[in-house]
Amino acid sequence: MTTSSSTEKPNRGRILIVDDERIILDLTGIILKNRGYQVITAQSAADGLKLIATEHPELVLLDYMMPNMDGLTALKEIKRHHPDTYVIMFTGKGSEEIAVELMKAGASDYILKPFNNQDLVERIESVLKLRAVEMQNRALLSERERLLAEIADWNRELEARVHEKSEALKRAQAEIVQSEKLATLGYLSAGMAHEIRNPLNSIALFVQLIKSGLDEAERQEYVDKILKEVDRIDAIVRKLLDASKRPHFEISEVRVDRVLEETLEAFTPQFRQKRIQVVQEVKSIPPAIKADPMEIEQIFTNLFLNSIHVMPEEGVLRVQLDQEDGYIHVRVSDNGPGIPPENLPNIFDPFFTTNSRGTGLGLSVVLRIVKTYKGKIEVEKSDGTGTTFSVRLPLAA
What we know:
The structure is a single chain. The protein is an alpha/beta fold. Helices cover 54% and strands 19% of the residues.
C-alpha cells in the first residue's frame, strides 16, 4: 500500500487504485501522476476501504477479480458508506451481464483489461467531470432546501407578527368603540335627564295629592302602581347619569380587599336565599389606591348582581384577588350557563340585556368606572361551565 503525488503537474484530484496485480498499480499510477493526479494504491479491497475512509479520494479504480473480497462486494461497500466517492471498475471479462451488474451496483464506468492509456485517461476525466456536476447539483439542491426552510421560517415569523399586530389592532378598535359608546350614552342621558326629570317630579307631586284624597281601594292600588313606575323611571335616569358621566366623587385611600369583603357581606341575604357558596382566594393583598370607594364598590356590586342572576341555586361564586404587573387584579367567576358567543361583543353596550327586568346599564356603568381609573375589564372566559370577568385597576390609579 503506497501513496505518492506529482510535483510536476497541478493536482487534478485524488484517485485510489485497488488491484492485486502490482504491475497494474505501477503502470496506472505512472499514467495518472503524469497527468497531475494524486495517486493512492492498495493491493486488496480491505486496504482500499480503509484508505477511502481516511483519504477520501474522488475516484476509485477498482479491480473486479480479487482474492478474499472481490470488486463487486467492495463496490457495494463503497457506495453504501462513501457515496461521494465514484468508482470505475477494471475487469478482464467483457460480458454484458457483468457490465449491467456493475452499473446497477453503482459503478460510474468499467474498463476492460488490457486497457488503452488514452482511453483510460479519457474515461477518468469523463467520470470526474460527471462527479463535479453532480456534486454541484447536490450542493445547489441542499442550498435550495436551506433557503426554502429559511423562507418558511420567515413566513411563520411574519404570520405571527401579523397576527399579533392584528389582535392588538382589534383590541384598540374595541376600546375606541367602547369609548364612543360611552360618549354617545353621555349625550343621550344628559338630554334625557333634563327632559324627563322635571315632568317626573310633577307627576309624583300630583299623584301624591290624588292619593291623599282618595279612599277607593282599587284607585289606591292604581296610584301605588303609578308611584312604583315613577320610582322605576327615576332609577333608570339615575343609572343613565351614572353610566354617562362621573357623578360627585370623593377621592381617598381605598383598600380593594376591604371593599370586596364589605360588598360580599352586603349580598349575604341573596347568597343564603339561593344557597350560593362564596369562595374567596386572596393571592396577595395589594396596597391602597386613591379612588372613590363608592365607585369601586359599584364595580363589584354590579358584577355580583349579574352572577347571582344567572347562577342556579347552590351555585358557586369565586372571587380572586391578586397584584401583578402594577395592577390590582380581581376575577369574578360564576358557574352559570355562560354568555352566548354572539352576545359577547355587546355586553358593555348601554341598554343591552337578556334579562327582561334589567335595564342593560350595569356593565356600562362598570366600564365607565374602570375606564375612569385607566383600568381594564374583559370577559376572560365564558362557556357552559360559567363566566369569569377580569378587572384590572392600576396601582397608580
